Amino acid sequence: MNKTTLLALGALTIGTCSLSAQAPAPAAAPSATVTITPAFVSQYMLRGVRLGGPSFQPTIEYASGPLTLGLWNNFPLKDKVAGQSDPELDPYGSYTIELGKDLTLVPGFILYTYPRAEKPNGFYQLTFEPSLALNYTVEGVKLTPKFYYDMVLKQSLLELSIAYSIPLKDIGSSLDFLGQVGTFKAQDALENSSPGFKNYGNYWLAGVTLPFQVTKESKVSLGWAYTKGSDNFFKQGSLAKFVNTGAVGRGVATVAYSYTF
Predict the structure, then answer these.
(1) What's the rounded Cα separation, in Å, for the pair 15 and 183?
(2) Closest to 166 in 3D by CA, of 189, 139, 129, 188
(3) Could you state, in chain order, the average pLDDT of each consecutive group of 10 residues for the chain (261 residues)?
(4) Domain that holds residue 161
(5) What's the number of domains the chain is made of?
(6) CATH of residue 53
C-alpha cells in the first residue's frame, strides 16, 4: 500500500524572544489521498501460476486514515491466455486496526472480475475473496501471515510475507525486499464442471524494489522478482490428478510510476 511520510517542525526561539512567540503550526496532513499508478510487468504471474506475458497493470487507490479502497487492472499485451478475460478488473479494499505497538489487524477483500471470460471453457467471470492479515514489525522486519478464502472457488489460502527495507541515502532511495510463501486448495476451480475440479498447490516469491522520489507527489519504482509454483494439481472426482502446466518459475520485471494527490 502507498504510504505518506509527514515531517513535524518544532517551534523555534531566537535570542531572548518570549516562549509565547511560537512558530506557525505545520500544515495538517491531508485527510484523504488518491494515488494513480500505471505499471508494466514482463510477465503476469499470480501465486506461482503464469496468466500471461507482458502486461499493463494500472491501479487507482483511495486512502483515508485506516481505510483503503482501490481498483487494480490487468491488460495483457502479449501471450494472452486463451479463453481468459481481457481485461481483468479487480476492486479491492482493506481496513487497518491498531492492536498495539508495531501490531495491526487488517481485514480486506478482492473482487476478481473477468468481463469477457469464456464460461464454457471453465473460466469464472467473477469471484470474491475476503482476507484477514496480521502485521507485526520487529527490528525493521515486517511479518505478515494472511488467510484468504475465495467464496466462489471455495478456496482456502495461507500466505506468509516477510518485508525488509535498506535505506540508500546517497541516492535518495532504498532496497525494499519481499519474500512470500503460500499454499492453497480450491474445491470448485473450474466453472460448469460436474463433479467439481479441485486445484491445490504451493508457491513462493522473492523480490526487490528500488523506488525513486521524483517530486513530492510522484515516484518511479523499478522491481524484479522470481516466483515459482510447485505441486500444483487438478483433480476431478475419482479420476487421477494431473499437473497444472501454468504453474512455473519465472522472473518478473516491473516498472511503475505513481502520483498522489
Answers:
(1) 64
(2) 139
(3) 33 30 49 96 96 96 98 93 84 97 97 92 94 97 98 98 96 96 97 92 98 96 98 96 96 98 95
(4) 33-260
(5) 1
(6) 2.40.160.40
